[in-house]
Write a structure and sequence with these properties.
The protein is mainly β. It contains no helices and twelve strands. The protein has one domain: Rieske Iron-sulfur Protein (3-layer Sandwich). Strands 2-3-4-10 form a four-stranded antiparallel β-sheet, with no helix packed on it. It has a three-stranded antiparallel β-sheet with strand order 1-12-11, with no helix packed on it. It binds FE2/S2 (inorganic) cluster. This is Ferredoxin subunit of nitrite reductase and ring-hydroxylating dioxygenase.
Length: 102
């Protein structure tokens, strides 16, 4: 069952091409805006736990600021490195951005 929790207000969400690190009930989330579409993924890079929310957007990926592994915002995959981060379902409701952290 989904557990929707508030991440931030819509107006606080990153602008297109930007990412930010946020916390929702103890879960660290990387919130990205790719061409106007928001997406949420686990904030911690599976390589050496770099903070993806301090990285950047490149194409359809969030790039880790430490060693530049890029994770697709739709799948969480980094095919070149056979790595993956969890993607959190996301929705906006009543002016808030909500994520399902289950
Ligand atoms: S910690 Fe993310 S690429 Fe190395």
């Amino acid at each position: 069952m989904a557990q929707w929790v508030r991440l931030c207000a819509v107006e606080e969400a990153p602008q297109p091409g930007k990412v930010m690190q946020l916390e929702a009930q103890g879960v660290d989330v990387c919130l990205a805006n790719v061409n106007g579409a928001l997406s949420a993924m686990d904030n911690w890079c599976p390589h050496r736990r770099g903070p993806l929310g301090e990285g950047w957007v490149e194409g359809d990926r969030v790039v880790c600021p430490w060693h530049a592994w890029g994770f697709e915002v739709t799948t969480g995959n980094c095919p070149e490195e056979h790595a993956h981060v969890d993607i959190f379902p996301l929705k906006t409701e009543g002016g808030d951005v909500l994520v399902d952290i289950t």
